[in-house]
Amino acid sequence: MWRQARSSGSVRSATVTRSFCASDRQTSKRLDLHLIVDNYATHNHARVKAWLKKHPRFHLHFTPTSASWLNQVERFFGLMTEERIRRGAFPSVADLEAAIFDYLEHHNASPKPFIWKASANDIVKKVDHARCKLPALRWNNLDSRLED
Question: Fewest CB atoms within 10 A around its CB: which of 30, 34, 41, 123?
Answer without folding.
Answer: 30
